[in-house]
């Protein structure tokens, strides 16, 4: 059994196909080009005849180009864009450009924030640091209570200087850790849905003690 012949378009169908094609492409074509671009669903002879009919109906315009005639669809004056519409389009474009710039700035800020959070201590490390600080605080308070009770040995100037140096170092470390703790809690507040949940977390972690 031989290959099935493709059914050709009727005259009315061919006319509609040609007119739709010319309006969609909005370019001039000859009858041969149109027939080929429509995959020969309308024969070259039928295309040439239908183009003449469409030209007589003032639906397409035909102009001689060398030995052939090229056709293009006539534009509907009602489709023309008014100056007011052009101004509206320009304003819309400017607004969209401004919105795009704003969104790019927001995205940049979010990327910076994310990079900062990624470089900070994790939640587990932060809790470990808090526990360590609390333990150091308890030890220091115990030593202070002992000193206040008069259980102190005589301290030489060298020992005093050494202790003061250590104290300055510890004070700097404490300040940095306190800053980290504040940043951590700020992040927790931003990521927690309600104040009640924040209060529960603070109480659970003993931050208000």
Structure description:
- This is Homologous-pairing protein 2 winged helix domain-containing protein.
- InterPro entries: Hop2_WH_dom, WH-like_DNA-bd_sf, WH_DNA-bd_sf.
- Belongs to the HOP2 family.
- It holds the Pfam family WHD_TBPIP.
- Its main location: nucleus.
- With 209 residues, this protein is mainly alpha-helical.
- 69% of the residues lie in helices and 7% in strands.
- It has 7 helices and 3 strands; from the N terminus they run αβααββαααα.
- The chain has a 3-stranded antiparallel sheet with strand order 1-3-2.
- Helix 1 crosses helix 3, helix 2 crosses helix 3 and helix 5 packs antiparallel against helix 6.
- It is rod-shaped.
- The termini are far apart.
- The mean pLDDT is 79.
Q: What distinguishing features does this structure have?
A:
209 residues; mainly alpha; three-stranded antiparallel beta sheet; rod-shaped; double-stranded DNA binding; Hop2_WH_dom
């Amino acid at each position: 059994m031989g290959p099935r012949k493709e059914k050709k378009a009727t005259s009315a169908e061919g006319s509609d196909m040609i007119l739709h094609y010319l309006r969609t492409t909005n370019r001039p074509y000859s009858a041969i080009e149109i027939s080929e671009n429509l995959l020969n669903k309308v024969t070259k002879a039928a295309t040439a005849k239908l183009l003449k009919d469409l030209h007589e109906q003032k639906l397409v315009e035909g102009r001689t180009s060398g030995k052939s005639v090229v056709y293009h669809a006539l534009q509907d004056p009602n489709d023309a864009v008014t100056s007011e519409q052009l101004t509206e389009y320009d304003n819309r474009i400017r607004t969209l450009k401004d919105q795009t710039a704003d969104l790019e700035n927001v995205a940049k800020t979010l990327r910076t924030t994310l990079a900062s959070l990624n470089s900070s201590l994790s939640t587990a490390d932060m809790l470990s640091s808090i526990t360590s600080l609390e333990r150091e605080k308890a030890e220091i308070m115990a030593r202070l209570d002992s000193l206040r009770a008069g259980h102190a040995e005589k301290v030489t100037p060298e020992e005093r200087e050494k202790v003061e140096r250590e104290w300055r170092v510890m004070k700097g470390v404490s300040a940095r850790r306190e800053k980290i703790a504040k940043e951590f809690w700020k992040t927790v507040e931003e990521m927690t849905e309600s104040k009640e949940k924040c209060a529960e977390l603070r109480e659970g972690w003993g931050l208000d003690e």
